[in-house]
Design goal:
β2 and β3 (60-74) form a beta hairpin. The chain has helices at residues 2-16, 81-86, 209-216, 218-224; strands at 19-32, 45-55, 60-74, 89-104, 117-129, 133-136, 139-142, 165-180, 183-194, 249-262. The protein has four helices and ten strands, in the order αβββαββββββααβ. Helix content is 13%, strand content 44%. Mean pLDDT is 91; it is low at 1-17.
Length: 270
């Protein structure tokens, strides 16, 4: 009975003595995929979010957060002549919820004069929304409902329109500095490997202009193959439009302000 009481008291102490972080982040984001295989400074967009972290001990913690940004790219900015002739473009918002595990390389204790900075790494899982659009005749058009690669047509059996909600794998590195009492700053660089290849609405083959025109209408046909806008012959049906070997990636670089709440002095944090 005494042992049970001691165990219960210890458990209650652990529940009370927790350290929580509340953070707000601002930064920039970008994309890599079929329309942009490497980082392009011309297509960096602002982003931001909020997050909550539970610190298990001075090295390990678990973080949940919300991030929002937008990404875009255009074949017109590519150095590859084949891409420029393809002449596709897209823009989409990203709205992400993520859970990650974080590891500090050094002991880190908020408010401690010695353990007040550390580099860290993190990885986890995210769920995000997106909706690629393009501009045609001065109007913004959502691309997914058009099935620009023939998704949903009888000529492409088993090819359904892609979902606008997908998973991604966030991973990254950062540095954290406790500059005053319970106030800290972090700088981090992160990537998100999307479990979809359609952030940019490009992945497979051309459906063919005539087929798209007859089945989906003029706007869908023009957005499926925009080579004609440059006076270039339209692409043959089933010819290469994208590369589906790798999925798309979006990345984020940002700085966070953190306020830490320590509900009690836990011995393992001393």
């Amino acid at each position: 009975m005494l042992l049970c009481l001691v165990a219960a008291a210890t458990a209650l102490q652990d529940v009370k003595a927790q350290i929580y972080d509340f953070g707000a982040t601002l930064g920039v984001a970008g994309y890599m995929g079929d329309l942009q295989p490497s980082i392009n400074p011309l297509n960096i967009k602002p982003g931001g979010g909020i997050w909550f972290k539970y610190n298990l001990n001075p090295h390990w913690g678990f973080r949940a957060g919300y991030l929002t940004t937008s990404i875009n790219a255009s074949d017109a900015n590519a150095s590859n002549p084949w891409q420029r002739q393809r002449n596709l473009s897209f823009d989409t918002y990203i709205s992400e919820l993520a859970v990650t595990a974080e590891f500090n390389f050094l002991r880190y204790i908020t408010g401690h004069h010695k353990y007040n900075h550390t580099p860290f790494v993190f990885a986890g899982l995210a769920r995000f929304r997106f909706n690629p659009t393009a501009i045609i005749d001065g109007n913004k058009v959502e691309l997914q409902p058009l099935g620009t690669e023939g998704q949903g047509l009888d000529a492409f059996p088993g090819s359904a329109r892609y979902d606008l909600i997908a998973l991604s794998i966030p991973f990254g590195i950062g540095y954290r500095w406790n500059f005053y009492k319970f106030h800290s700053l972090t700088f981090e660089i992160s990537g998100r490997y999307a479990l979809t290849d359609y952030l940019d609405d490009v992945s497979g083959n051309y459906a063919g202009y005539d087929l798209m025109l007859s089945e989906r209408g003029e706007i869908a046909a023009r957005l499926s193959d925009r080579s004609g806008e440059l006076g270039i012959p339209l692409r043959e049906p089933f010819s290469q439009r994208g590369i589906n070997t790798f999925n798309d990636t979006y990345w984020y670089v940002g700085m966070s302000y953190i306020f830490t709440i320590n509900s009690g002095r836990c011995p393992r944090f001393r």
